[in-house]
Amino acid sequence: MPERVGKYTIKISNNINIHSSVGIVGKKEGEGPLGEYFDKVFKDNMLGQDSWEKAESTLQTTAVDTLLGNLKLQASDIDVIFAGDLLNQCISSTFGLRALDIPLLGQFGACSTMAQTLAIASIFVDSGAANRAVAVTSSHFCTAERQFRFPIEYGGQRTPTAQWTVTGSGAALIDKDDVGPYVRNVTIGKINDLNIKDANNMGAAMAPAAADTIFNYLSDTNTKPEDYDLILTGDLGKIGSELLKEILLRDGIDISQNHNDCGLMIYDLKRQDVHAGGSGCGCSGSVFCSYIMQKLKSCELKNILFVATGALMSPTSSQQGESIPGIAHLLNICCNTTRNE
User: Fold this and answer.
1) pLDDT tens-digit series, residues 298-314
2) I need a labelling partner for 32 at 20 to 30 A (CA). Which of 42, 234, 284, 306 fits?
3) Which of 77, 121, 120, 75 is nearest to 98 (CA)?
């Protein structure tokens, strides 16, 4: 059974593993540095659909279908699916997964949704509430621009702090097995709000939440940054990553030697015009479920912290002049050689 460690962290007691995962992306993401690691790259960002929103739903459909197909499982073999995205009422998830007939718990953690779904799926399986659970999320550049900023046709000028919403999806199967990688600990984040109101500066809005969650996890577990091969944040991008390191240094925590960010990894910032990096649920979802999972399975990465971050805003709140609260959820994941050490 899961148990508390310190104030904020939950220890996963059994051998709860991320059995398999799939990363699906669009054309621009496939042309980036991680292109060879993705399971599927769509060359047409419409994905054969007649709207951007339907295209994003297809990302989730494809991710889950590919995951189950790789494992030779049927939808009926899955006890519950945790899914979420950026769109109002999580329509990418509900419309993309409705044909599967799997019990679903919709999630909204903004860009932190991959960590949130993985965390809840792990707790469900560890507690015995499920034997197999799927965690999935997605985002699409055009749907996010239409909802949160301006439609593509508007042709607005993007600021230097702006990030490019990833067209992609990540899906993972959680179950009990004696082969890693294993979820060892989970830390659920708290809302942090430093009154950032710029919808084109997500990194600044989310960095304080990432710092808070990392600080709480290290305090709860009595560990240090150097105990981990990698501290991977969700999609702080260039601006947010620098802010995160600055904030943690004030508390004497230096993550500069082993930190990276999914928003910095998925694109070539010099060659691809993405300004401050990548963002969106599909950013950490596709990077973690492809490149990072492959490194964990081979034990090139032995012990990591995966800290996905989210900006808890909506078009309505922004139009009413509200600030942008941030949140970050953390998973400690290790490969099979370190689980019982």
Assistant:
1) 999 999 999 999 999 88
2) 306
3) 75
Percent of the chain with pLDDT over 90: 78
Q: What CA–CA distance (Å, rounded) separates 208 from 244?
A: 7
Q: Are 39 and 66 in contact (CB under 8 A)?
A: yes
Distances (CA, A) of 331 to 54, 74, 94: 31, 27, 25
Structure tokens at 264: 């910095």
Average of pLDDT values for 49-75? 96
List, as one string, the DSSP characters of 201-225: -HHHHHHHHHHHHHHHHHHHHT--G
Question: At the fourth CATH level, which superfamily is domain 182-334?
Answer: Stage V sporulation protein AD (3.40.47.40)
Q: What is the distance between the alpha carbons of residues 303 and 234, in angstroms, rounded to a whole number?
A: 17
β-pairing, 230-233 with 259-261?
parallel
Distance in angstroms between the alpha carbons of the first and the last residue of the chain: 19
Q: Can you tell me the distance from the alpha carbon of 205 to that of 203, in angstroms, rounded to the nearest whole number?
A: 5
> With bands split at pLDDT 50, 70 and 90, how would you rate the model's confidence at 147?
confident
For 3-176, which CATH superfamily applies?
Stage V sporulation protein AD (3.40.47.40)
Query: Given the DSSP bridges, would you call strands 326-334 and 303-311 parallel, antiparallel or unpaired?
Result: antiparallel
Over the stretch 160-171, which tens digit does the pLDDT of each residue have?
677 778 999 999
Report the predicted TM-score, pTM, of the whole model to 2 decimal places.
0.95
Place of tokens 């999935």: 136
Domains 3-176 and 182-334 share a fold: yes
Which residue from 341, 336, 291 is spatially nearest to 16, judged by alpha carbons?
336
- Could you state, in order of their start, the residue ranges of all structural domains in the chain? 3-176, 182-334
Q: What angle do CA 51, 53, 54 make, to 5 degrees?
A: 70
